[in-house]
Design goal:
This protein is α+β, with helices and mostly antiparallel strands. About 30% of the residues lie in helices and about 35% in strands. The protein is globular. Keywords: Transferase.
Length: about 180
């Protein structure tokens, strides 16, 4: 049986009560650089998103789960995106909302749980991640969990400091043919 619970965190579906957390996170300009967000989201738009969050990954090509600590507080989000069932692959992204909660193992547990879900339940052959070259914490996290650097997209992301390179990481499920 698949368990979406780790030692310090668990993953769960989005709930209507997550609106304020989602609003705060999606409108946090400090994460826009990695999320590709260009403008703020209204609560109305985010409520519409939550109203449709129950839709199947095969239909919407995305799965977003809340990362919750053992006190049942939502501390971040983890996504599978660009889900491609024909080629059995998806992108993965993760964010821990509060900078004070980062680098404490919550993201690592969430990544391990989501990879296990993607490989064992969705039967994916591979998962990939796009990480900015200067995001050393994320690079370390993904490498620790077996993601390999397979390429660099030069000057891929435009930021307030200029263009940045984005590294493409990939993890192949060796248990799947």
């Amino acid at each position: 049986m698949l368990n979406l619970k780790g030692e310090h965190i668990y993953l769960r579906a989005l709930e209507p009560s997550d609106l304020d957390f989602l609003y705060q996170l999606e409108n946090d300009t400090s994460v826009w650089e990695v999320s590709g967000t260009l403008k703020p989201y209204s609560k109305k738009v985010l409520q519409l998103y939550l109203d449709n969050a129950h839709r199947d990954i095969y239909e919407v090509k995305q799965l977003r789960l809340c990362i919750c600590n053992n006190s049942d507080e939502c501390v971040g989000l983890i996504d599978l995106f660009d889900f491609d069932p024909k080629h059995r692959r998806a992108g993965i992204g993760i964010v821990i909302s509060d900078p004070n909660d980062r680098n404490k193992g919550q993201g690592a547990e969430a990544l391990a749980l989501m990879c296990d879900y993607a490989f064992s339940v969705l039967d994916l052959h591979q998962i990939y991640a796009n990480i900015l070259e200067d995001n050393q914490a994320s690079i370390h996290l993904f490498e620790k969990y077996g993601f390999e650097k397979i390429g660099v997209k030069k000057e891929w992301v435009r930021t307030s400091e200029g263009f940045k390179n984005e590294i493409l990481f990939q993890k192949i499920n060796s248990n799947v043919s």
